[in-house]
Design brief:
Order of helices and strands: HHHHHHEEHHHHHHH
Shape: globular
Helix content: over 70%
Structural class: mainly alpha
Strand order of the largest sheet: 1-2
Distance between the termini: 22 Å
Length: 338
Amino acid sequence: MNVLGVAAFAAVVGFAFMLGVSDAPNASASLIAARAASYRSAMAFSFATHAVGGLIAGQAVALTITSLVHLPTDRLPGAYLAASVASLSFTLAATRRGIPVSASIALVGGLAGAAAVEGGWGAVGWGGFHGVRPFGVIGTLVAIVLSPLLGGLVAAATRLGLGRLLRRGARPLERPLRGAIWLTAGLVGMADGSNDGQKAMGLATALLVAAGTLRSFEVPLWVTALMAVVLASGTAAGGRRIVRTVSSRFYRGGPLADLAAQGASAATILGAGWLGAPVSTSTIVASGMIGVGAARRRRHVHWPTVRTVVVAWAITVPASALLGAGLVGFGRLFEVVW
């Protein structure tokens, strides 16, 4: 692997860490909101569950990620380097402001922009669907858009169903409900670690294939372990501001609402992983919280925060695409000057 390949691999590792940072609230926000765990306990739990999820991950999502770009092996490292740096930069800027954007969405935009400049529009894997399985940029973006809507609707329906079922007995069951939140939070963490971990695993494995280190695309065990631990470390290092945004600034509805949101989010992420869809887990979890709030008490949802986050999600792809394209263009200019 040449210097550019090594730099691209290092950037993918950094992307895995930033994925974890943006995923920090996913398994911990509900525990904190329900007062089932302290901040430190919740983050330790997040690390453990995300690591386990990454270690037991398959490679369906990893294969989908590699379908976003069609470039010769000598140009692939440059595109991956630019896309990873673009995703890192955009996600870091948003996270520092407490806005839970998606590093996954930023990666899709960064890859599309970098590939377009590196090899023309034909180098972008536009894709679509093989049956119900998404592939390429279009299929991935459709899955990313639909999955939080589905997660929010399922969370709202679950909250209403639990509310009717436990209308008279929710308060005595508050302690068992908090225990159930640990279970659903664990499922979210493992599902999250599996789906997001595979994104970095796919990029890293494709780089190894391009460099001739691997003969065929099959994620090595050491790559799986490396990305799982790096991703989990990012979730544990996630800032308090983004955790606070998801745990309290969307909607605070008690253990029942947290249980419904986490359960719906886990089911949605696991279903997406089974289809090989590299979805944005952070948007699914946030939408779950919004869904339970809208179903129960719409006026208690903090809609200005919701609007800010939705706008951030909407500009992620074009902003990251421009960053990825600009970085590739800068790299070419540097080569000419050098």
